[in-house]
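re: ur question from the group chat, yeah i did fold both. here u go
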Amino acid sequence: MQRSCAALACKQLRGSHTFSALAGALNDIHTEFNIREKIVRTTTDNGSNFLKAFRVYGQTDENNNPEPAGEGDGEEDDGGQNDDDNEEEESGQGVEFVDAGALLDKDDYLEYQLPKHHRCACHLLNLVSTVDASKAEVNPLYKRLSRFTPVELAFLAEYAKTMSPVAKALDVLQEETSVQMGWLVPTITLLRTKLQHLHVASKFCEPLIAALLSGLEKRFGEMLADPEMIAAAILVPKFKTCWTSDDNILKLGLDYIRSHLDCQTENHVSEGSQSSEEEDFFSSLKRTGPLETTQQLDTYLGCPGDTVQVLKSIPAVCQLSLKLNTALPASAACERLFSVAGLIFRPRRACIGSKNFENQLLLRLNKAYW
């Protein structure tokens, strides 16, 4: 129940960093380490090339299939069946020429298979605190006070007090070993609540708080209503159901957990008792029913402990928690990789080869394993 982290690759991409080039590089790494079926979610920054790569080649929430894109609208080829007839036709008749190379190069967007995608929460919060916060300056009074003259110390103090919860939320979400995906929804929910409380007593920063709340809704609204994200939060013993008083939100997460606990139990039984079912006529009576899975969830929610040790005594809940909370809510770990890479790739090593550079970087980042 303790997170382990490792760097797998730092590849050089030649040419333009297009969405298909990124998808191909990620697909190659997943194949090389045989982890394609093990990845539950990939967290990246909000670059347009990354977003398009996962939008085109990634799984969707509905049916876990890549989005249908780039479907051809050309005429069907007859497979060469009428070649003999065509030779007998007069050259004066209209002839349609088809570029065979274009047909061969046609991309049906099924070449790569990428997992579900998650946008970096820290990057989104940075956008909220900069891009969205700047919209507060449409208020002329706020804009005038925000120009920071010595007589406006009260404004500066209130501004710092307003931005403090945002900074703390960033610190929480960019952790690597002690934070799981289930921390995201409670952190943003609590941040929103703190800003709403500050809004009541604010004298100068009301436009700023309104802009921040609007930015949180714009960038995190879908995540805060995602049943999988809510379920991940509930399955973190530190939070369970105490992080919100909205019964509708909790119901979304609890319904998701119950349905997936039932599916998980059925899959486990079918895999573990295939051979015995052929011999034991009464094997179906041994299967775990919906009541037992509900009891496991109730046992977990009623347990007073708030450490990961609570999960070990409830195997089905533990397995689902591991599945939903393996991914990280932010891509700060990759940013740290780039910082270490900068220490290696110094001016005196400008001629180092890409493979040599990658090996040195991975040796330094994964020194705990050798």
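okk and heres the other one u asked abt
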Amino acid sequence: MGRRRALELYRAPFPLYALQVDPSAGLLIAAGGGGAAKTGIKNGVHFLQLEQINGRLSASLLHSHDTETRATMNLALAGNILAAGQDAHCQLLRFQTHQQKSKTKAEKAGSKEQGPRQRKGAAPAEKSGAETHREEVPTLEKVLEFKAHEGEIEDLALGPDGKLVTVGWDLKASVWQKDQLVTQLHWQENGPTFSNTPYRYQACRFGQVPDQPAGLRLFTVQIPHKRLRQPPPCYLTAWDGATFLPLRTKSCGHEVISCLSVSDSGTFLGLGTVTGSVAIYIAFSLQRLYYVKEAHGIVVTDVAFLPEKGRGPELLGSQETALFSVAVDSRCQLHLLPSRRSVPIWLLLLLCVGLIVMTILLLQRAFPALL
């Protein structure tokens, strides 16, 4: 079997740090930038339209949102609320798509004669016609901002009940209801680690419990806080989404994990590493299914699954799941997991019956006097 390879889906004009997918519109939301340094590298959020073209998933830039002097380092999306971590600040943005009329064929023909062609999404002249169609353009509105940690926010996750989990460089993982602290996670006290090896929370994500509509899990990644010559392993942990008590912890190797994602159904976990590798795990058992070593060749900053609802199934095609990854190399890659089709039970029973019949016939031929 040859080495797995990832497909490059999009390349941005700035380093990419965060990624989300809006299922209803089939939008891939990628964010990053050059930060406050005056390097000429902008800070922004790019909205990419996902489409199936000739049997392959592709992405094209639909809209670019300027975030001025702050680079967005992490994103979380729940409904129409987009949470953005920028340095030590957390912004809550209301994400909305509105329709904008585009030109008719007559207007497009006229624009060629009268002057330069307008960019896609520019405001058209008001003119009705049967061929006029509308394009979706996203807008954002700040709802709330508060200080969540002492130092930078490493990751954040929005739950379906409105709770927000943030993890930071201060070694804390906090659960919020708007800007009010609800509780904090306690893994180091009970985790399978050495007492002289401090760990910090690197990533956090909420996920459903398969076959349990009301069930909710929180998944976190713990990594050594300091780099050691012989680094201890990183850990994956599943938490109860109501009590925020740990349920299961398992080592995920010595490659330092940089990011985490959970599929819609809670079936799969996606991981990225600081060395550019990408992996897919089974959420229930925390066992690894898919792995591409150094897919990016540099730190993977975020991963996100293609949604299993909305336009997700249409875009997924015959694959079992699809994982997007972004990195400091400004690239967005696509990782496909082929369907693992199991043999139907009725076919197994039929094979068993066939084997029994064949065995009886062979015995009859070999020992006719005994049967």
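fwiw on the second one: The radius of gyration is 25 Å. DSSP finds three helices and 26 strands in the chain. idk if thats what u expected
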